[in-house]
Write a structure and sequence with these properties.
alpha/beta; four-stranded antiparallel beta sheet; binds adenosine-5'-triphosphate; binds magnesium ion
């Protein structure tokens, strides 16, 4: 059973490895998080931090030879990290929906959107053709596509980028999954429609009580959409907490740096306050705290000992300074 009360998703001490010619690269280490029904967990962090990898591990879509080398993944009361490909295929679409950056990775250009929706609905919900068509039309209506009765017979290329991503959301929701993994769902879209798509996602997930893992670079999107935020650095979780806390009272020095590098909404800034240095490569993660070399507050303990997630504020942070001890 998932330990956190009512959790739809619970990831415990997840470790992902990529065996390679020069040894084993650890892409994720000790990642633990949970998401409740109707809750949206935003996942942020620099490029290469392990955000997508976490989503792919949950979906059972790690690219070989990548593998889950430790920890557990629970979907409600079912452990799913040890299932085989066939069993995971049944769970994807039915119990976990996915939305990726490019709508065309989820849609087949050769079939009408109606054919793709009804196929998913019939496969997972066992409806007949008429029932599935009615459900497809109602889903298209839910995601704000005008004249769904006509649009259902059109092909993906006949939709604009934003409308296409709405179709992908309809597809992800088609079988009423418990969880949706959305990885940069608006990055490829015109800035003017990004907010519409994320607020649609939020509205539908709140209505249907779907849990969402929302991976994004965009702090504006996170601020408006997420309930809690998980911050990743070099394959680990460094902070997790309620949106207000992580945005306005971040506990971990990395999160503070990340937040300071975002201009206030509407503010004109000459130069963003970037964190000096860059995230280490997977095969060169320093001993102790991985953020240590970039951290102005790091002390001897930070160079020696790797901090685990410990309670900080109303959430948790992996930093010796937050732990009340000395760095
Ligand atoms: N097929 C692979 N083999 C080995 N390492 C990989 C593979 N795919 C990704 N990685 C490594 O895993 C780490 C995490 O990658 P991931 O794609 O999760 O980053 P991310 O946080 O989603 O970054 P971005 O914001 O750029 O999407 C990176 O260091 C990446 O180089
Ligand atoms: Mg990514």
């Amino acid at each position: 059973m998932a330990e956190a009360e009512n959790a739809v998703l619970e990831v415990r001490n997840l470790k992902v490895e990529f065996p390679g010619r020069r040894g084993i690269a650890t892409a994720l280490s000790d990642v633990s998080l949970s998401i409740r029904p109707g809750e949206i967990l935003g996942v942020v962090g620099e490029s290469g931090a392990g955000k997508s990898m976490t989503g792919l591990a949950v979906l059972g879509l790690l690219e070989r030879p990548g593998r889950i080398a430790g920890g557990e993944i629970w979907l409600a009361d079912r452990r799913i990290d040890q299932l085989n490909d066939r069993e995971m295929e049944k769970i994807r679409g039915r119990e976990i929906g996915a939305i990726f950056q490019d709508p065309l990775t989820s849609l087949n250009p050769l079939f009408t959107v109606g054919a793709q929706l009804t196929e998913t609905i019939r496969l997972h919900l066992g409806m007949n053709k008429a029932e599935a068509t009615a459900r497809a039309i109602s889903l298209l209506k839910d995601v704000g596509i005008p004249s769904p009765e006509e649009r259902i017979n059109q092909y993906p290329h006949q939709f604009s980028g934003g409308m296409r991503q709405r179709v992908v959301i309809a597809l992800a929701l088609a079988a009423s999954p418990k969880l949706i993994i959305a990885d940069e769902p608006t990055t490829a879209l015109d800035v003017s429609i990004q907010a519409q798509i994320t607020s649609l996602l939020r509205k539908l997930c709140k209505e249907k009580q779907t849990a969402v893992m929302l991976v994004t670079h965009d702090m504006g999107v996170i601020a408006e959409t997420a309930d809690r935020i998980a911050v990743m650095y070099a394959g680990r979780l460094v902070e997790i907490g309620l949106v207000e806390q992580v945005l306005h009272a971040p506990q971990h020095p990395y999160t503070r740096g990340l937040m300071a590098s975002i201009p206030a909404l509407g503010a004109r800034v000459e130069r963003l306050n970037q964190i000096d240095g860059s995230m280490p490569r997977l095969d060169a993660i320093p001993e102790g705290c991985a953020f240590g070399p970039r951290c102005k507050q790091a002390g001897p303990r930070c160079r020696r000992e790797r901090p685990n997630l410990l309670p900080a504020g109303s959430g948790a942070s992996a930093c010796w300074i937050n732990a009340g001890g000395t760095a």
